[in-house]
Every structure is written in structure tokens, then in C-alpha cells.
Write a structure and sequence with these properties.
Elements: H1 2-16, H2 42-68, H3 89-105, E1 108-109, H4 112-123, H5 129-135, H6 160-176, H7 193-200, H8 204-209, H9 213-231, E2 237-242, H10 254-264, H11 273-279, E3 280-285, H12 288-297, H13 299-303, H14 307-319, H15 321-327, E4 336-337, E5 342-343, H16 345-353, E6 364-368, E7 371-374, E8 383-386, H17 387-390, H18 398-401, E9 407-411, E10 416-420, H19 431-445, E11 454-456, H20 457-467, H21 473-480, E12 484-486, H22 487-495, E13 514-527, E14 536-547, H23 553-562, H24 586-594, E15 599-601
Parallel strand pairs: 8-9
Antiparallel strand pairs: 1-3, 2-3, 4-5, 6-7, 9-10, 10-13, 11-12, 13-14, 14-15
Length: 610
């Protein structure tokens, strides 16, 4: 029965594809002067009605198939009201087929208003040609260097925020989800790179250098798809492309694909919303599998000089332009900041959390008068640390500091890099750390200073109730005497308060000690000591991190000056090992915002976050 139905549909499709429906046979020539049309015989009428029904069924099947095609936009330009009458069935089918073929490569054009809004949102109304050049000459490409082959290379300043966010997700898949990157083994257990490195003590350069281009490409596709669906509230993803590609690159080798794409981009510049409207097309998907197929087919385009910009535009369109503006504290400012063209914090937050908020604290902050500013509202897969926190310019919340996977985008004043661990257990908390995190979250929820580390007396009382901390009256009075409570002072009281009262007093001085390794990747190509003169490449640095025990300054001084010896009376003096020799670089300050008092050491050149 199904075969018979398929034959009928194929027959109907062939009929409907004809430019004109076949004329019914007549026994004699038609008299043009006649006022009434020639009546059809019952046999001819039945054949015509059957043909119309079959054509309508074929048209319906064709429209359903086009909607399911991975490269066809759900916001397709196909006509919404398709009449089922026989008067236009063949021409409509012709048009539908043409639209399917066109959307497979082009998608939907933006209106002139949408294109202008998108361009102004990213670059503003007055943008220098230098900034436009930075963002129009940065592809999403892996490093050819063996040691850093898992990393994306940056050649231009500006788009590092986009590249670092993608890099963080790429590392997530490479390190922890290898089964997602091999065809046909998604449900087969595989040993992750992080586990291989921990068990075999093999060098990172050996393992990262052994990654195939196909594996890295799949990690990139998965990462971009996850980010775009995150921006689309996990309901949809919009992918931006350029309609200037007039050659089919399927079946070509990668080098030839890159050459074809590069030739297509010759002479292209995007200097206004008008330019954007002329060349940009967008395709929206509700199926992750279909979006992944589309992204995979577009890898040569994302490798091109327009790749980073196209991905940023895709993320903004996935979120929705109006929604992006409502996320922001000041939507009048461009997302790419002048005068150096850096990606704003809103861009980075959009790619990490799905919302283009400007702040890195948790939740919302009440400014009074019904005004709020928004921070990170949901848990994230990969996190964020910043040098600016060590300089007391902001406070990163626990959502970004403690992501699901031990991978962080690291921000400095002018650049974004990536920090990661091979072992997820570096974030596992012991009893002491878990208690500290609980109390700190409660404290931060009452902090209306934007991360300044102080709260009101009423807010402090709420923290004590939520965390079951019972302070002695004299301690309570001392902390509240100034009308506000500072975290550092409250923390010192907790360290000297017995556990029975909700405190964190540790008589051993050893609680919370950790030793682990972190890796830092800087994708911008720089000269590396020990390499050939003039050779530039990204940097990957291994850091040994030792987090000493949690002690109060008084305990440290007692342990250091007393030499572990005994004084005359009373309490036992605990011998505390002296701090390790430490190396310093700005990255260490970032690490210490996550692990206070961390001691970091490395070999070779210091890690650079600029």
C-alpha cells in the first residue's frame, strides 16, 4: 500500500512540475465566439479532480520535507498561505522546489531595519575602520603547532572574547566527552583525554598533537551548536552566513575549500548596516541535529576571515535583538568597545550563560526605586575569572567561579584567555570549603554594593539565620558597630568560632590543603623563548597550584615565630609548614580569586594574560 501511495505521489509530483496542466481532449476545435465554456465530460472531470488531489498531496509532502531539511530556515521565505486549488498547484510546486534549493544555501535575508539594528548594536554608529578590520579578519581556526593543536589561534586584537568562549567549550568536549566526537560511538564508553593524561602521565603535547582534524572539527561544531542553543533558551539556534558563496564546495579537500571561500571574500567589507543587509543570510533551527549538520557544512566559512564575526552575529540573532537589549544595563553602548575594539563583558556573558548581561555577580542587584541590574542567573557549563576582581573593580559570583566543568575564560584589561584543569575534582569541596561556600553565598545574596564585600545589619542577621551561625553577643556587637558588616572581618570571626556555634575553627591548621595542576592557554600568536627567531605561536603553560591550609593571621604568626616550640602555658602550639616559594604573574592573581592564597609555579616563561 505504501509503495502504491509513493508511486501516486511521484506521478502527481511530475504532473505538478509541468508548466501547464494538460488540456482535456476535445472532439472539435473550440468556438472562441461562444459565450459559455465547453463542458467537461464526466471522465475528463474525474481525471482532473484526481490529478488535483494528488498534486495537493505531493505539495504537502514536499513542504513537510523542506521544513525538515537541516539547511532550511524555519523562518523560511516560502509563502505562508499556499492555496490548494488547482489553478496554481503546478506553479506553486515549482516555486516551493526553488525555495527549498535556495534556502539550502542562502536562508533568509534580514530586513534593512534588522540589519541596521544588528550593526549598530555591535559596532555603534561611529566605528573606526581599524576596529572593523579586526573583526573582519579573524577566523575560527585551530593552531598548526603540535603542542597547542587543540587551541584556536588569534591573529587580530578584538575578537578574543568570542574565541576564548568557544575555546572553553571545545576543551569541554575534547577533555571530558570524547564519545561525542566519534561517529557511531556516542553511547560507547571511552576514556577521556583528561583520564588518559592522569593515568599515563603522558605529555599534553603528545596527546593533543595526536588529535585528528576530524575530532577537533567535531568538538568545534558541538561547541558552537551548544552555545547558539544556549543563547536561544535551548529552543532554537540561528546561524548567520554570507550569500556570496556561489560554488559548491562539497567533496573538495579542506585546502581547496579554504581557497574557494577566500576567493569569494575578496573585496568584501562590512562597514554599515546596508553592507550587512546585502550579504548576510540567517537560518533558524529548532532541531540540534539539523543545526549541527549546518554548522559542519559551514566550517570552511567559519575558518575564513569572517568566521568570528559571523559566530557573534549568530549568537545575537539566536538570543533575539530585542532580548539582547533588554538583558543589558546600557543598551545605547556598542557591544564592541572603543577605542581598541575589545569584546565587551556582555558578549562573553552571552556566550557563557546565554544572556547578554554586563555583570558577573550572581542574581540581581536592587538599586532602589524599582531599578535592578542583572548578573548571572543560572549555573554555567564553563566559568569566568578576571584580573579586575583582584583589583577590587568587581566581584565574580559563585556561578561563574564554580562552573560544572573546571574550565574558565580569564579576563584581563585587554584580553581573554582560557584556564582549565584535567581533573574535575579540583572543584570538589571538603567539609570546610563546603561550609565556607554556603556562608559566602548567603552573604553575597545580601550584598547590594556590587561585590564590595559588605552588607547591612539587617542583611547580616538574615545571613546568620540562614547559615545557623550563633555569634557571642560581644562578637555580634563588634561586627555591627559601624552599621555595616565587612566580609573579611566576618570571616576572621568565623575562623575563630567553634563548629558547635556554626564556625570554622580548625585546631590542626591542615583543613583544606590541596595540590593540583592547571593549564593556561593564550591563543594569540607570540614569540616563544627557545623557538626559532621570528616564529610565533600560541602559548600553553602548566601550573602547579598549592592551596595552603586555612589559618588566621594570628595562627600563622604563632606558627612562624614559635618555631613549633612550646611556650609556657596552656594551649598547644600547632606546627604549621611554611609557605612554598611562589612565582608571580597577573594570572596568579586571577587564580587566587578562585583559590585564596594559592601558590603557583611553572617552568619557562611566565603565563601571559595579555
Amino acid at each position: 500500500m505504501e509503495d502504491h501511495e509513493e508511486d501516486d505521489l511521484q506521478k502527481a509530483l511530475r504532473m505538478s512540475m509541468q508548466h501547464e496542466p494538460p488540456e482535456p481532449k476535445r472532439s472539435k476545435a473550440r468556438d472562441d465566439s461562444a459565450e459559455t465554456p465547453l463542458e467537461e465530460s464526466p471522465e475528463v472531470k474525474n481525471r482532473r479532480l484526481q490529478r488535483e488531489l494528488m498534486a495537493a498531496a505531493a505539495e504537502k509532502r514536499m513542504m513537510a520535507a523542506s521544513a525538515a531539511m537541516p539547511t532550511t530556515a524555519t523562518i523560511t521565505s516560502a509563502p505562508k498561505d499556499v492555496p490548494s486549488s488547482s489553478e496554481a498547484s503546478s506553479s506553486k510546486m515549482d516555486k516551493t522546489v526553488a525555495i527549498v534549493k535556495e534556502d539550502k544555501f542562502l536562508g533568509k535575508e534580514l530586513s534593512s531595519d534588522e540589519a541596521q539594528q544588528l550593526f549598530s548594536m555591535v559596532f555603534g554608529n561611529e566605528v573606526s575602520k581599524g576596529i572593523l578590520a579586526q573583526w573582519s579578519n579573524q577566523g575560527i581556526r585551530f593552531s598548526p603547532d603540535e603542542e597547542t593543536s587543540m587551541g584556536l589561534v588569534q591573529h587580530e586584537g578584538g575578537p578574543c572574547g568570542v574565541l576564548a568562549a568557544i575555546q572553553a567549550f571545545v576543551l569541554k568536549y575534547l577533555l571530558f566527552f570524547p564519545q561525542e566526537l566519534v561517529k557511531g560511538v556516542q553511547n560507547t564508553p571511552m576514556k577521556s583525554i583528561s583520564r588518559r593524561l592522569q593515568e599515563n602521565q603522558d605529555s599534553v603535547s603528545n596527546i593533543f598533537g595526536s588529535l585528528t582534524e576530524e575530532t577537533k572539527s567535531r568538538a568545534l561544531v558541538r561547541s558552537m551548536g551548544e552555545i547558539l542553543f544556549l543563547c536561544g533558551n535551548n529552543n532554537s539556534a540561528t546561524i548567520a552566513s554570507l550569500k556570496i558563496f556561489d560554488q559548491n564546495i562539497e567533496g573538495k579537500d579542506e585546502k581547496e575549500k579554504d581557497e574557494i571561500v577566500a576567493r569569494s571574500l575578496e573585496g568584501l567589507s562590512l562597514e554599515s548596516g546596508v553592507d550587512l543587509q546585502k550579504v548576510l543570510t540567517v537560518t533558524t533551527f529548532t532541531s540540534p541535529a539539523s543545526a549541527m549538520q549546518r554548522l559542519e557544512s559551514m566550517i570552511p566559512i567559519f575558518r575564513s576571515r569572517m568566521g568570528a564575526l559571523l559566530f557573534l552575529l549568530s549568537a545575537l540573532l539566536s538570543r533575539g535583538l530585542e532580548t539582547v537589549q533588554s538583558d543589558r544595563d546600557d543598551p545605547s553602548q556598542p557591544l564592541v568597545t572603543a577605542p581598541f575594539g575589545h569584546a565587551s563583558q556582555e558578549i562573553v556573558n552571552l556566550l557563557l550563560s546565554g544572556m547578554a548581561v554586563a555583570n558577573v555577580f550572581d542574581g540581581k542587584m536592587d538599586l532602589g526605586g524599582g531599578m535592578f541590574v542583572k548578573g548571572i542567573l543560572t549555573p554555567v557549563e564553563v566559568g569566568f575569572l578576571t584580573l579586575l576582581e583582584s583589583l577590587n573593580f568587581c566581584k565574580v559570583g559563585q556561578s561563574l567561579k564554580s562552573p560544572k566543568w573546571p574550565i574558565w575564560v580569564v579576563g584581563s584589561e585587554s584580553h581573554y584567555t582560557v584556564l582549565f584543569a584535567l581533573d574535575p575534582q579540583v572543584q570538589a569541596e571538603n567539609e570546610f570549603e563546603n561550609r565556607e561556600t554556603t556562608i559566602r553565598r548567603a552573604f553575597d545574596s545580601q550584598d547590594q554594593s556590587g561585590g564590595g564585600g559588605f552588607i547591612s545589619v539587617d542583611g547580616f542577621r538574615q545571613v546568620l539565620r540562614e547559615t545557623n551561625v550563633n555569634l557571642p553577643p560581644e562578637k555580634m556587637e563588634a561586627l555591627c558597630s559601624s552599621g555595616f558588616i565587612v566580609w573579611s572581618e566576618f570571616w576572621q570571626v568565623l575562623l575563630d568560632l567553634d563548629k558547635g556555634f556554626g564556625g570554622l575553627k580548625d585546631s590542626t591548621g591542615l583543613m583544606g590543603k590541596k595540590v593540583f595542576y592547571l593549564w593556561h592557554f593564550n591563543g594569540i600568536a607570540k614569540a616563544v623563548s627557545g623557538s626559532e627567531v621570528g616564529v610565533q605561536r600560541p602559548r600553553l603553560t602548566k601550573l602547579r597550584v598549592s592551596v595552603p591550609p586555612r589559618w588566621t593571621p594570628e595562627e600563622f604568626m604563632a606558627g612562624g615565630s614559635g618555631g613549633g616550640g612550646g611556650g609556657g602555658g596552656g594551649d598547644e602550639v600547632v606546627e604549621v609548614e611554611k609557605p612554598e616559594r611562589t612565582q608571580h604573574a597577573p594570572l596568579v592573581d586571577c587564580v587566587r580569586t578562585r583559590w585564596a592564597r594559592a601558590v603557583c609555579n611553572w617552568e619557562g616563561d611566565p603565563p601571559s594574560i595579555v
